[in-house]
Automatic annotation (TrEMBL):
InterPro entries: Beta-grasp_dom_sf (IPR012675), Mopterin_synth/thiamin_S_b (IPR016155), Thi_S (IPR010035), ThiS/MoaD-like (IPR003749). Gene3D superfamilies: 3.10.20.30. This is Thiamine biosynthesis protein ThiS. Pfam families: ThiS.
């Protein structure tokens, strides 16, 4: 499996080549419906996620939505 280097929450990480954003989130163990994603310093609208191919050098900030009272 070929991998590429990305930045995830400020730390360098690797992931398989050819993943789209929802696949990457699942591969990383996130539940896509419970996160907000900043992609290369821009908030990425959820409706665009399925088309967003992850490339080497991309910078992602993933914030988990936590419920509670």
């Amino acid at each position: 499996m070929t991998e590429c280097q990305i930045w995830l929450n400020g730390e360098q990480s690797s992931c398989p080549v050819g993943l789209k954003l929802p696949e990457l989130l699942q591969w990383l163990g996130y539940k896509p419906q419970l996160v907000v994603v900043e992609y290369n310093e821009e908030l990425l609208i959820r409706s665009c996620w399925a088309d967003q191919l992850i490339k080497a050098g991309d910078r992602l900030e993933v914030v988990t939505i936590v419920g509670g009272g």
